[in-house]
Amino acid sequence: MSITYVDAIREAQEQLLKDDPRVFLYGQDISRFGGAFKATKGLADAYPGRVLDSPISEDAMVGMAIGSAIDGMRPILEMQFADFSSVGFNQIVNQAATHFYRTGIPVPITVRLPSGGTPGSGPFHSQSMESIYAHYPGLVVVTPATVSDAYQMLIESVALDDPVLYCEHKFLYRWLKAPKIDHDGLPLGRARITRHGRHATIVTYSAMVHEAVRAADRLQQESGWEIEVVDLRTVKPLDMDTVLASVARTGRLLTLGESFPWGGVTAEVVARVCSEGFHLLDAPPKRLNSRDTPVPYHPNLWAAHRPTPESICIAMRELLSF
Amino acid sequence: MPQLGESIAEATVVRIDIAIGDVVKADQEVIEVETQKATMGVTTLCQGVVRELNVQEGETYAVGTTLGLLEVEADEVEKTGVETLEAAAEKRVNTAAEEEEKNLHFAVDDDTYEERQPVVEPSVKGLPVPAGVMGAHYISPRMRARMAELGLREADISAVVGTGAGGRVTVQDLEAFLDYIEEWPSSQASPMRLAVADAMRRSWSRPLATVSRPVRLDRALDHRRAQDPKPGLTLYLLRAFALALAEDPASAGFLIGERIVHPRAFDIGVAVQVEDGVVVPVLRNVDSMNLGQLTGAYAEMVDRARRRRLTEDDTRGGIATVTNFGTFGLTNGTPIPLPNETLILGLAAGEKKPIWSKEVEAFVPATEAELAVTFDHRVVDGGGAGLLLARIAELLQSPEKL
Amino acid sequence: MLEARQLETKLASLYKAGKIVGGVYLGKGQEAVSASLGGSLKWKHDVFAPLIRDQGGRTAFGEDLLDCARTYLGSVEGPMRGRDGNIHRGRPAEGLLAMISHLGAAVPVVTGMLLARRLKGELDGVVGATCIGDGGTSTGAFHEGLNAAAVEKLPLVVVVANNQFAYSTPNDRQFACEDLYDRAKGYGVAGHRVDGTDFLACLRVIGGAVASARAGGGPQMVVANLLRLSGHGEHDDGSYVPDTLRAGHLGQDCMDVARQQMVDSGYATAEEIEGWRSELEDRVQRALAKAQQETKPDPWHETWQACSQNPALPFEA
């Protein structure tokens, strides 16, 4: 018996509904239908009146979640796709993100963003929004990469008093399985060393953690390089202690992300390592992101748009040969 | 002048509806002003008598300008909370004191900030800057930090073969090299050795060149034999060097940025070999002292150098150095000047050899030695160095003038 | 209403005397509408999200004069502590939301608060209300929020103060329907219309809409017609408002109308009203004087923290 990434998200929500009367779920097609990805399957029946279908109104959805949170609830909002959260962007960055700073009253909402690409999803069902939201003060942005993190970090996101953008990767939904949910106790906001190494560090998050590990295995088999992989888990706030400690061990850094290349999480990590850990670097840090175009539809193009184990290996060889 | 709109910095006074001595009510519009956005009335904060008007119709004033002053009853001040002149002055004093303290945290003060013109311009079009960053001599930030930790200099790792891009030495290469030399016997270098090493390494960062020519020493040697006490040959050289430099001080100048720094006095050092190193005591004003005067000072200085009793003052401020490596039997050499000097003059061992004499049209015996000068080629050229050597050779032919 | 007018008159004066940084936005001409709404709501029981011209409603709802004075003058004693200013203030824990500048954004937030009350089983007898202008009705948030409230049948009252201009843009460049009131039917909410210059009519219609929502009548939309008797803010002289409009029915000052209505109905004499005015003027003056003398925010003691918690610290779920 094994549990998938999307099962873990569903189970976390079930646990939250069970344990905390303040929790309710709001989103498009999430009630009886169980959500576009079945992340809320069966929950409407088990918790009647607490799993609500919303109109196709992302602005209103976020606004209502904010209002309910101000009034003491712990809403979990499901965006059908992370891409559509751009319609609710104003409420997220101007209402939710500023509220605690302005009024002293925190806004404990959790916005689930089904993120990232899957073959054939095209430009509007494949985006990764974590870099956009991480830019704003007042928001916490989490990007779980494992089944247990998907479960545990959703529980912790809802418990947090501040607005959390919970970026769940659609590719991992059914692809990623674990024998059981088995959390190592690492709290939200802490990065994890997923794979130990001493020649170079890859800092990444979400689905790219698995691509990085595959590339690292290949480099070890083919050339004996030992690559350390750091899973950020939370991209805002950034756990620079873990990142810098890893770079101190290896002296070389690749930051890897699936979002667009201009700015963003990968750029932020490189900038901070350069300014806080310049003396640790034996080679110029590298970044690897998707290409600078919208996410293409056709699987052939899509597979070449995002970083792959092959493109990661090429980048790593450049980094290692400096 | 109030801030009338978010992007407004100034406003023009269109009309003044009051005069000095007028009694005004609270919230009365007393002055009409105009901005790019609109025309507005400026109101009074409280009831009072107009005592001062600082503005004129048609003139433009910055936001924050005091337009005028009202004389106000004390209870009106209390009721409306308006700011009095005394309170404003007190606040300014307090703020100024606070600002002064706070400015410690700010690199730029608003009042004095001037936009700076860019001073760095791209040197060569299309060439990545800095050029050659991938080359063999590129030292990464981590290498630099590791070398600093170990007290290593670039010169120390010149033996390491790099495996990085363009043959650069990576940290792994360095660590492997350090492991390798662990297998060799080693000993702790003396402080003297390290001091010489440091000076030579720093000096070697410049383009140094050496030229030499033979000089006749017979007359100097003859002159020396007639003296009591006998001055060392080094002193003849020292004097000739000082006099030659006094005629052309710029050749001993050193280059800092775009400036040649000229000698302040003709204080010249003498290299003295001591145990495990070389020290260079400096003799002062060599151009204005005669051989007799120098002899005692020199002997005393050399003695102290050998006993390691030189003070910092004894070795400070030289503009050039003389070394008589001929005393080791060497017939040639390329000495290295101190890092803060442009020139070093070296004398090799004299040899008696037959020299063709034009006067007697025959070979005659003569004592000759190579005289070498090493110079910073940024400051002096080969021709200039040659002329300097020629002049010294000439002066050595008239030892009685030294 | 009277207090709001006194307060705003004084704020305008302080602004023109250079004592207020940023902007001053007045509700002059909108007091009858706003106060009728605020006065129909109960502090700490109902939810109210005022917009920029709602001093009347804020005061009637129960906001302390000092909250306004302190926020405009940047006192650290105020609810916003200098982190936000002027009309961007509120006490969300008491049901008074702090507006953001994005128009319409408050509609779904009030709706969400009402949804929370329902989920907690505390909705009975509760009303959530917000104001918006004619321009704000063109935003997506207004539409989405009102639609969502209608879907959930929540007791939301949206009062549209149609003051004929959104900043300088007249109605005919803002919407094409004959009357904004017609939209109510499209949303499936109860619609009401009222002359915003007529105080008694406002009390009746707006108070009625609130009572209807409170009684389970679902969302209500009231469109009040009026004219803004000031600029958009005090930096704006409103020169684009035609004189004919100022001289017409909408140009009449709701304060004058209200005063006359109270005298005519025998509720108060002109002398009594003048007595209230002078007392309120004094209270306003003292509140502003107090706020002006209070401590201003100090950047060296500001926390500069945008989140209430640091998730990187050991965390217990």
How would you describe the overall organization of this protein?
Chain C: Residues 5-299 form the Dehydrogenase E1 component domain. Chain C: Residues 291-317 are annotated as: Disordered. Chain C: This is Thiamine pyrophosphate-dependent dehydrogenase E1 component subunit alpha. The complex is a heterotrimer of chains A (322), B (402) and C (317). With 322 residues, chain A is α/β, with parallel strands linked by helices. Chain A folds into two domains: 3-178, Thiamin diphosphate (ThDP)-binding fold, Pyr/PP domains (Rossmann fold, 3-Layer(aba) Sandwich); 192-320, 3-Layer(aba) Sandwich (Rossmann fold). Helices cover 39% and strands 17% of the residues of chain A. Chain A contains twelve helices and 14 strands. Chain A has helices spanning 5-19, 43-46, 58-70, 89-103, 130-134, 147-159, 172-175, 208-223, 240-250, 265-276, 299-305, 309-320; strands spanning 3-4, 23-27, 51-53, 74-78, 110-115, 140-142, 164-169, 177-178, 192-195, 200-204, 227-231, 234-236, 253-256, 286-288. In chain A, the strands form three sheets. Chain A has a seven-stranded mixed β-sheet, sandwiched between helices. A five-stranded mixed β-sheet of chain A has the order 9-11-10-13-14, with helices on both faces. In chain A, helix 2 links the parallel strand 2 and strand 3 (51-53). In chain A, helix 9 (240-250) packs across helix 10. The mean pLDDT of chain A is 96. Helix content of chain B is 29%, strand content 22%. Chain B is elongated, with a radius of gyration of 38 Å. In chain B, the strands form five sheets. In chain B, strands 8, 11, 14, 15, 16, 17 and 18 form a seven-stranded mixed β-sheet that branches. A four-stranded antiparallel β-sheet of chain B has the order 4-3-1-6, with no helix packed on it. Chain B has a three-stranded antiparallel β-sheet with strand order 2-5-7, with no helix packed on it. In chain C, helix 1 (2-16) crosses helix 11 (270-293) and helix 4 crosses helix 11 (270-293). The longest helix of chain C has 24 residues, at 270-293. The interface between A and C is large, with 55 and 50 residues.
